[in-house]
Amino acid sequence: MIEKNHGVRCYVLIDFKIDELTHQDLGQMQMYVNYYDRYEKIEGENPTIGILLCKQSDEALVDLTLPENANIYAKEYKLYLPDKKLLQKKLKEWLDEEQN
Question: Which residues are in the YhcG PDDEXK nuclease domain (predicted)?
Answer without folding.
Answer: 6-92
